[in-house]
Amino acid sequence: xxxxxxxxxxxxxxxxxxxxxxxxxxxxxxxxxxxxxxxxxxxxxxxxxxxxxxxxxxxxxxxxxxxxxxxxxxxxxxxxxxxxxxxxxxxxxxxxxxxxxxxxxxxxxx
Amino acid sequence: xxxxxxxxxxxxxxxxxxxxxxxxxxxxxxxxxxxxxxxxxxxxxxxxxxxxxxxxxxxxxxxxxxxxxxxxxxxxxxxxxxxxxxxxxxxxxxxxxxxxxxxxxxxxxxxxx
Lengths: 110, 113
Description:
The structure holds two protein chains of two kinds.
Chain A: E1 4-5, E2 10-14, E3 19-21, E4 24-25, E5 32-38, E6 45-50, E7 56-58, E8 64-68, E9 73-78, E10 87-94, E11 98-100, E12 104-109
Parallel strand pairs in A: 2-12
Antiparallel strand pairs in A: 1-4, 3-9, 5-6, 5-10, 7-8, 8-9, 10-11, 10-12
Chain B: E1 4-7, E2 10-13, E3 19-25, E4 31-38, E5 42-51, E6 54-57, E7 65-66, E8 76-78, E9 87-94, E10 103-104, E11 108-112
Parallel strand pairs in B: 2-11
Antiparallel strand pairs in B: 1-3, 3-8, 4-5, 4-9, 5-6, 7-8, 9-10, 9-11
């Protein structure tokens, strides 16, 4: 069965710093990959997804992610974070069901 | 507005008292799913449904039941809640399996005392 690993549990950055959150998955077949964001007290919202084509995908709010098949990775990036990006970020992989990583909490200091 | 509606948002109950958390979507989605979210564990799937009258267990189904009698509704039933079911619960739907992302409900925070 597929699984997802997120390497960082809690990341603390200052505003304008660059962000990269790691995500690795275990499934070797065709996968559909997602990043979700959960702002404090809210439900999960889709940031971006990859299922085919250009391995560099752009999402909402200036986020992007790169699918590297050889590394089974789908890392999330943002060149310059803002205080409003403080949230929890979840990587997910979907073959039939959606499997989520444990999440990375991002704190951005003003 | 396209959405997944869960009720209630907050619930405190006592051990053993049966409860139902409702979930309804207005997008004609075939696929619906229930997750629980616990700190450090991410989201774990409880049950899912690929269509009306088709349900299956996820990773943590013990102590839960579901039904899918209509396409729009997918209630989660706790027949005899226990304190280890205290958690944040999310319902989600998608058009079908594959590359579709989920639309999530707003969540139900359940406390069992």
